[in-house]
Amino acid sequence: MAIFDVGGHSMNNNQMNQDKHIALPDTFLGQRWLVEERDACGVGFIAHRQQQESHEVIAKGLVALTCLEHRGGCSADRDSGDGAGILSAIPWELLQQDWNARGIKAAKDKNIAVGMLFLPRDEQAAHTARGIVEQVAVSENLSVLGWRVVPVDGSVLGAQAKEHQPQIEQVFLKAEDVSGDELERRLYITRCRIAKAIRSLDSKSIEEFYVCSLSSRTIVYKGMVRSAVLGDFYHDLNNPAYKSSFVVYHRRFSTNTMPKWPLAQPMRLLGHNGEINTLLGNINWMRARQASLTHPLWKGRSQELQPFVRIENSDSATLDNVFELQVRSGRSPLEALMIMVPEAYRNQPALSNYPEIVDFYEYYSGLQEAWDGPALLVFSDGCKVGATLDRNGLRPARYCITYDDYIVVASEAGVVDFPEEKIIEKGRLGPGQMIAVDLENHEILKNWDIKQRVAKSHPYGEWLREYRQEFSNTGASNNSLAVNGHGTKVNGTNGHGGNGHSATNNQQPTIDAEDRQALLRHQIAFGYTTEDVEMVIQPMAIDAKEPTFCMGDDIPLAVLSEKPHLLYDYFKQRFAQVTNPPIDPLREKLVMSLKVELGSRGNLLDPKPEYARRFKLESPVLTEAQLIEIEKSDFNTVELSTVFSIGSGREGLKAAVESLQKQAVEAVRNGAKILVLSDKICENSQEWQKYGAINAENTYIPPLLAVGAVHHHLIGAGLRMNTSLVVHTAQCWSTHHFACLIGFGAAAVCPYMALDTLRSWWCDPKTQQFMQRGKIAAMSLEQSTGNYIKAVENGLLKILSKMGISLLTSYQGAQIFEAIGIGRDLLDLGFYGTTSRIGGISVSELAQEVLSIHCKAFPQLTAKKLENLGFVQYRRGGEYHMNSPEMAKALHRAVDGKNYDHYAVYQKHLQGRPITALRDLIDFKSDREPINLEEVESVSEIVKRFCTGGMSLGALSREAHETLAIAMNRFGGKSNSGEGGEDPVRMGTLNDVDEKGNSATLPHLNGLRNGDTASSAIKQVASGRFGVTPQYLMSGKQIEIKMAQGAKPGEGGQLPGRKVSEYIASLRRSKPGVTLISPPPHHDIYSIEDLAQLIFDLHQINPKAKVSVKLVAEIGIGTIAAGVAKANADIIQISGHDGGTGASPLSSIKHAGSPWELGLSEVHRVLMENSLRDRVILRVDGGLKSGWDVLMAAMMGGEEYGFGSIAMIAEGCIMARICHTNNCPVGVASQKEELRKRFPGTPEKVVNFFYFIAEEVRSLLAKFGYRSLREVIGRADLMKMRPGVDLAKTKALNLDCLLKLPDGKNNRSWLQHEEVHSNGAVLDDDLLADSEIKNAIDGHSAVNKTVTVVNTNRTIGARIAGVIASKYGDRGFKGQINLTFNGSVGQSFGAFLLNGMTLKLLGEANDYVGKGMNGGEIIIRPPAEATYNPTQNVIIGNTCLYGATGGTLFARGKAGERFAVRNSKGTAVIEGAGDHCCEYMTGGVIVVLGKVGRNVAAGMTGGLGYFLDEDGNFPELVNPEIVRIQRVVTEAGEKQLKDLIAAHFERTSSAKAKMILDNWQEFLSKFWQLVPPSEADSEQVGSQKKQLSKV
User: Fold this and answer.
1) Cα(873)–Cα(286) distance, integer angstroms
2) Looking at residue 259, what is its pLDDT?
3) pLDDT tens digits for 1432-1459?
4) Is the pLDDT of residue 33 over 60?
5) Per-residue pLDDT tens for 536-547?
6) What's the CA gap between 210 and 202, in Å, rounded?
7) Is 213 helix (H, G, I), strand (E, B) or coil?
8) In angstroms, how far is CA 488 from the centroid of its own chain?
9) What is the per-residue pLDDT for 1149?
10) Could you say which of 405, 560, 881, 1438 has the lowest number of CB atoms within 10 Å?
11) Mean pLDDT over all residues of the chain?
12) CB 190 within 8 A of CB 213
């Protein structure tokens, strides 16, 4: 073997060098895990409690994998699996047979280890790798016993997997001097050194080397295979001699199809189903810890373990690395996961009995930021095997325990078949819960037992009480105290050179004219505008919430604008879609926290009492009084000035930042525990200047650059964990500003000038007069300040939640932004690791922008008031708006007739606009000569590619909504229903139109024709599921799943109560006048495989309709879209950030999402590279206004084109931008009858607009020599940078990411798409083929059938319901179809069920039972041979009865999380449920005869709930924000409850129901009734009804 330098200290350990970024010289395109790879999966384990080894365990594990195949994905060849694998005990018997056969002298021994290796395909590289392995092993005192080629059958692999198949070998090592945990540590350090030595070779072929496992206890067999062939590929797995007492199994669904064998799971200790949303932050903090992480067990060799993480690794691999580091450093895997993935302990009533567990979490919250995101983690170190769930419970985890000592945990029930009579318990993991098997002590460990044992290992509570500090009562007016009360009070006084304006009890604060002038000067210098004050700060102070606006963002990007922008405006917030869900900050706040702690963070691996010495804040928003208290505490706090002299010109900014970085390093090395970066002090004075330390000679480093630069510099210096960063700045007032500062490293922010501005407004006599007159609510200065801070805090929660992050500590430093318009030198200086795809302004150009703002105030102030730049509201002379009143007027004139000359005026208006969007920087370059217009395809063909946006009936008036639908149907385009259902009257064809264009069917519309239809071709399914019935779904030519919307990606929707008329309420199955909320996540889409399931559901009910998925552009959307394509979607829609017609928080409109040009080109590129482009049609929308826009979108890969706001303008919208108020002056966006009568639109006007667009497309195609739009789709080679463009801010933009797309000229086969993707063979088709069922449907007769099912039979009943709905609508079927099923059934059992259908299941069901059911009945009970108590066991999964619009469910057993979420009209009786029961319910009746989890009835606005409370703790589990609880006090209420329980007993033979009925009066008094305000007067509730004599 060759000799290599494998000494532990000689390897290059520079993290910055080891990051292999996807980058161009002036751009950074994102980390691989962000832009190339996301995954989800099915996962689980099987273990024998007595540690009885058998091949049966392995065999069952392989079967379980096969049963989870539908949760995995395949590559473009449809055969290469995304990955499957198992982790088990080492099969010593099998290996002994092999050793005996080959003459290797070894025996099963606690000193022997086995390495499972992927070696390079190139034999020379493999030889080199073997040499490195052996040499490192020998240097670690491990003798090499030999190698084994693992027997495999490559013929079972798919083509892509086979092409990249590594050589798979095992190496056997023996230690003479250590065993057990000590040997595992030695093997760990050996593996780390091997990896370093391999990387040092810098050879591409040797990069294929990967260690799957190296252990004396466990082994991993995995590969890029489908579940079903894992055992066929690895011969060992089918060998009876392969025996183990446990097996962890994993089936992967990757959003990418590039074959990567190492990414298959399990990893070395973990199998991970989910996504870490905070990954870049976790990586940065682990890099920061490298200087301090050590443990005595490593005996001074910790350096050799570094780097602990590598930025190019996947989230699962990174999580596994950090988990393994902790385990090998002496922690149990149970404790390590409690630290890394803590539960939501702060609002958990059950923890009142376990204060030591709260203490544990509180202690470690100051040392380790949570790895936040949806996760089911299954793990084993060979001694313990277990599973834990994320704090939100966002992945399913069912378990089963048998009498013969087996325990199974899996993503689904029914994956392992045990005789029912052998089962002791069927359960599920709830949010944050854990279960484990201690193989050595033969114990099954449940959640609280595990956590109690771990938490009692140290006196964490004592440590906290002794060391941790927090605000005194006087300093904490805006910061609540800790839940558990730990913390030492510290006193401070207000006296740090403040401005003296704070109110006292005896004196009303005032501000004189001189102060106002000084404030104005500094506001201008720091970039405040009239809109910032009047549309952001003041509304937040009045309403305690973020201001809302509407109609999207139609101004130029900051880097394209000629107006000066703050640095914050160059950063776009990222958000969750598809691969992980956003969180609901409104109704699920109990899992969220803004708590942060200041001070140094101790060594995570070796806890000590003094590490609790931290300063605890409940909020990151500080007043100056609070900042003073922190500075006067005994924490060493140092203020550093961010002010610098302007004398050095543009180049002075970089020098100032570098000087600040050096000062920070010096301060930390001198013991500073808190650094305050302040623009209120100057370099020569620590005294706060009244309104900031800037003047004619000095300006400021933008606070965002200051904090980012210091944060990363301290990481590089190994000092970041020693201190916290606090920003004390004038330039921070909006929620986006706070999010940026915290996201790039700040722990807390004191926005002193925002508070000064608020104070000035409050003291203004006009404000006081408004309060006196009642125009605004009367409030004290303290109240208005509190309102502002509350608005900021709620806004931060919303920003965290849209990325699926629960904890501010996890968001801090996570850099969850994309930079649009930031150059590489600026990126490297302050924002290292942040994506910046198009380059942009340099450090010196940023300095120029700062100085351009500064010079408006210094040396001379000429302005009398703040400037209004018109960034939000259009104003003459302000920023350019694409949707200006002038443009609207020009379009109205054009569409009034069919004269193209009028459209040309509109066209010129657009052509003359300033550079606004990225596409404005691009021009066409044809490779052909012009042709005659007659040779180009017709208008009638082009318009078929046009669609309208998903604008709901409710947001729009009935007139506006139906006019768009009729217009699009006239020419074969497609209108979109938006959310909210659709009136069946619209689904027919009009034949009663008179000569005036009026119809009795739709009497409110004008300009109609016979043959018109008002049915939207695209039926939208959004998160609220309002109006989603079988008939609605069957009436659609396409069904769209709205994952996000351009105006507010990552957020839910809201229809204010004032817009919920009787008509709207009837369509949405809700109450008139009651606000309707669509939650941020689809509660049945928490991952990519969940989306695949919903696509399956929709294809199941309507196999003729294409299913589209709407995404919003952001970095990484390409790999998400690859997953969507693999999930069987037919269409992917890419929306730009600038779209959106609905009401949204202003910060979301302005700062979330990316331009559609970036999103579309990324999606097209990734799908082409992954050979997936042919699977989907790409549709794009977001500010499209012309044929030129259409052609540009086509060349970037778009095949269909959506128009939203502009289509509304075409039918009469005048861009008043008050849609959210219900006061639209022309009736486009109002439900008020008197305003709707003003609606001026007709279908003809809309048709004219789209015909004009198509004519423009034709003329452009003729000019460039192309005969059809299809010919230029994906032809990026026809685009070039527009010559002569001179941007005001930079010349450094690089649009290669738009212009350099895969070859679309020579290969055009990807434009051939399958008509509609199929679900393949399904059980419903077999049932529909049954003549008796067919006859029952056709003849309205009855039929009974019995069928055996397994968990791979999914969405049973939906296709039958679809057939019935297509014939008879939702209510027209008069027959009765009774189907009985035996077994464990798959997801979505009974979805979209209709009247006349009864599904009975003897067994158990998985998630989404009764999803969208509209009628009929579902009955679920255990099999007769079951011996366990059904009431105590789980029988159905999570999110059951989601969006139900009718029907009844009876389940004899417990349900999972979010039972009856967004239920409209469904009725159910169950015997227990998890968290969030009845969330967002708007109707129906729910009865629960057992225990429930937290947050019951959050957002519940309609319907009734009855809950049996035998423990007396139900009230503390209810979210009291909307509902009230009372006992059953009316006869009607008692009758309703008793009748439902009697029906439950009749159908399920429930022993619990019988006991209640037999002891009715006793149990009646134990029921609580949930009553939302809309039900207060119902006969089951109301106090005026006849009361029960006894309660």
Assistant:
1) 44
2) 57
3) 999 999 999 999 999 999 999 999 999 9
4) no
5) 999 999 999 988
6) 15
7) strand
8) 37
9) 85
10) 405
11) 90
12) no
Helices (H), 526-623: 530-531, 538-543
Alpha-carbon distance 106 to 124, whole Å? 28
Identify the helix (H) or strand (E) that includes residue 690. none
φ/ψ (deg, to 5) at 539: -60, -35
DSSP 1234: H
| 58 Cβ contact list (under 8 Å, min separation 6) | 86, 88, 237, 242, 243, 244, 247
Other C-beta atoms closer than 10 Å to the C-beta of 731 total 27
> What's the rounded Cα separation, in Å, for the pair 1399 and 1442?
17
Cα–Cα dist 747/799, whole Å? 16
pLDDT of residue 1208: 92
Considering only CA atoms, give the Rg of the chain.
Answer: 32
CA–CA distance, 320 with 67 (Å, rounded to integer): 25
Q: Are 249 and 86 in contact (CB under 8 A)?
A: yes
User: Which of 55, 970, 1073 lies closest to 962 in space, CA to CA?
Assistant: 970
Which amino acids are annotated catalytic?
A: 41
999, β-bridge pairs: 993
Three-state secondary structure along 467-488?
Answer: HCEECCCCCCCCCCCCCCCCCE
| Inter-CA distances, 582 with 408, 513, 693, Å | 30, 47, 40
**Contact, 1110 vs 950, CB < 8 A?**
yes
Confidence (pTM): 0.94
Cβ partners under 8 Å of residue 1271, min gap 6: none
* SS3 state of residue 1340: coil
- What's the CA angle centered on 532, arms 528 and 538, to 5 degrees? 125
pLDDT tens digits along 696-736: 999 999 999 999 999 999 999 999 999 999 999 999 999 99
Length of the chain, in residues: 1591
- Identify the residue whose tokens are 């904890």: 807
- Find the helix or strand (DSSP H, E) in which 102 lies: helix 92-102
Does residue 12 carry a pLDDT above 60?
no
Cα dihedral sign for 1263, 1265, 1270, 1273?
A: negative
Q: Provide the 10 A C-beta neighbour count for residue 677.
A: 25
Q: Percent of the chain, pLDDT > 70?
A: 93
Q: Which residue reads 């600040």 in tokens?
A: 660
d(CA 587, CA 577): 19
Residue 578, amino acid = V
Burial 1266-1304 (b: 16+ CB within 10 A, else e): beebbbbbbbbbbbeeeeeeebebbebbbbebbbebbeb
| Tens digits of residue pLDDT in 873-919 | 888 889 999 888 888 888 999 898 877 788 888 888 888 889 999 99
For the residues 1303-1330, what does the mean pLDDT come to?
94
DSSP assignment letter at 1346: E
Q: Which helix (H) or strand (E) holds 66?
A: helix 55-67
Could you read off the pLDDT of 213-246 as tens digits, one per residue?
A: 999 999 999 998 888 889 999 999 999 999 999 9
Residue 49: DSSP 8-state: T
Question: Which burial class, exposed, middle or buried, applies to 1522 when counting CB atoms under 10 A from its CB (0-12, 13-18, 19+)?
Answer: middle
Residue 1071: strand, helix, or coil: coil
Q: Is the pLDDT of residue 475 over 60?
A: no
**What would the 3-class secondary structure string for 1485-1542 be?**
EEEECCCCCCCECCCCCEEEEEEECCCCCHHHHECCCCCEEEECCEHHHHHHHHHHHH
Q: Which helix (H) or strand (E) holds 410?
A: strand 406-410
Q: What is the dihedral of CA 625, 627, 631, 633, to 10 degrees?
A: 70
Residue type, 653: L
Burial class (CB in 10 A: 0-12, 13-18, 19+), 1003: exposed
